[in-house]
């Protein structure tokens, strides 16, 4: 039988990013957390953590974390169906991974009514849409948004819609670097803005222009800061049309290729055995997300 106190210690260490924070969360000493991890590894006969900074789950640890995520959701169903089990239970916390651009645009409107209705607290982990599945694979989250259709084992995926990305910059930046259009300069030497090392949108745009090789870019791991950088004339970048509707209308930003956009599909991935709560969130997203994602086209 699995000892869920030991599994709770493992989950806390990974989710909190360290032994000290895990100890604070569970109200234990750091030594007690360490002892629980060692006992879990002794019983399993294999390591569950790579002692790095932050600690990372091993393959065996990931399987256990996936199990913990699903058990938490099933326990919530029991509390809902049998309230006498724990009449003082508070709000349920649910960990999901999503890309920063969704968080900055349509996500809040899609989930706000459901969170209030179901008394859920979201623990939202930011991950680029191209690689969000690694959070599920590592057992850190119960669901994620990503651009990949194929789910991990034990999960389902559902297409919610597409986010349209535009190549934009400030008018002053365009006049300075592209006075005669994109063909007037070596785009590799014109600074871009890139969200992070997993953000490949600017790379794809340059390749579509027929340009290969490295290019100059700033790193800005903030969706709001990204747009501010573009407005200030620091560089050009790929931004969701949903996020810059007002800036385009006011003339603060302009499109490098008017009428062109890069569609990026968004798939919702969730555990098959995630219980009623996860099924409910999935149904809510299926109802609300398509219209929210299409708002830039309709507007």
Summary?
By secondary structure, the protein is of the alpha/beta class. The chain has helices at residues 4-16, 19-26, 30-44, 59-81, 100-104, 107-118, 133-137, 171-177, 201-208, 223-231, 245-250, 275-293, 295-298; strands spanning 49-50, 56-57, 92-98, 120-126, 143-146, 155-169, 192-194, 217-219, 237-240, 254-255, 262-271.
Task: Explain what this protein looks like in three dimensions.
- With 299 residues, the chain is of the alpha/beta class.
- Among the domains are: 1-89, Orthogonal Bundle (Arc Repressor Mutant, subunit A), CATH 1.10.10; 163-263, Periplasmic binding protein-like II (D-Maltodextrin-Binding Protein, domain 2, 3-Layer(aba) Sandwich).
- It contains 13 helices and 11 strands.
- Strands 3, 4, 5, 6, 9, 10 and 11 form a 7-stranded mixed beta sheet that branches. A two-stranded antiparallel ribbon has the order 1-2.
- Helix 9 (201-208) links the parallel strand 7 and strand 8 (217-219).
- Helix 4 crosses helix 12 and helix 6 (107-118) runs antiparallel to helix 12.
- It is elongated and about 70 Å long.
- The mean pLDDT is 90.
Series of H and E elements: HHHEEHEHHEHEEHEHEHEHEEHH
- Class computed from helices, strands and strand pairing: alpha/beta
**Low-pLDDT stretches:** none
What's the story with the biggest beta sheet? 7 strands, mixed
Shape: elongated
Task: Give the tally of β-strands.
Answer: 11
Query: In percent terms, what proportion of residues is strand?
Result: 15-25%
**What name is given to the CATH topology of one domain?**
D-Maltodextrin-Binding Protein, domain 2
Please state the average pLDDT score.
90
The CATH architecture of one domain comes to 3-Layer(aba) Sandwich
Q: What name goes with the CATH superfamily of one domain?
A: Periplasmic binding protein-like II
Instruction: Supply Rg.
Output: 22 Å
Termini separation comes to: 56 Å
Instruction: Look at the structure and give the CATH class of one domain.
Output: Alpha Beta
Helix content: 40-55%
Number of helices: 13
């Amino acid at each position: 039988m699995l000892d869920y106190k030991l599994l709770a210690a493992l989950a806390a260490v990974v989710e909190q990013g360290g032994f000290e924070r895990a100890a604070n969360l569970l109200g234990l000493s750091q030594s007690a957390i360490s002892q629980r991890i060692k006992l879990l590894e002794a019983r399993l006969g294999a390591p569950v953590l790579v002692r790095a900074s932050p600690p990372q789950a091993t393959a065996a640890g990931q399987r256990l974390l996936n199990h913990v995520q699903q058990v938490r959701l099933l326990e919530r169903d029991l509390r809902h169906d049998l309230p006498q089990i724990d009449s003082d239970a508070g709000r349920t916390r649910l960990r999901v991974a999503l890309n920063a651009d969704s968080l900055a645009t349509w996500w809040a409107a899609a989930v706000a009514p459901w969170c209030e209705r179901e008394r859920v607290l979201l623990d939202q982990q930011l991950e680029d849409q191209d690689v969000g599945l690694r959070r599920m694979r590592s057992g850190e989250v119960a669901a994620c948004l990503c651009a990949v259709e194929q789910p991990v084992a034990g999960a389902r995926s559902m297409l919610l819609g597409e986010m349209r990305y535009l190549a934009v910059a400030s008018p002053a930046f365009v006049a300075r670097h592209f006075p005669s259009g994109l063909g007037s300069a070596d785009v590799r030497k014109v600074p871009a803005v890139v969200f992070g090392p997993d953000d490949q949108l600017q790379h794809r745009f340059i390749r579509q222009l027929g340009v290969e090789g490295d290019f100059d870019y700033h790193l800005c791991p903030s969706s709001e800061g990204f747009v501010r950088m573009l407005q200030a004339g620091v560089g050009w970048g790929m931004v969701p049309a949903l996020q810059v509707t007002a800036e385009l209308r006011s003339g603060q930003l302009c499109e490098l290729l008017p009428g062109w956009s890069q569609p990026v599909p968004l798939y919702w991935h969730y555990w098959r055995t995630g219980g009623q709560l996860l099924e409910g969130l999935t149904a809510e997203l299926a109802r609300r997300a398509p219209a929210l994602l299409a708002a830039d086209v309709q507007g």
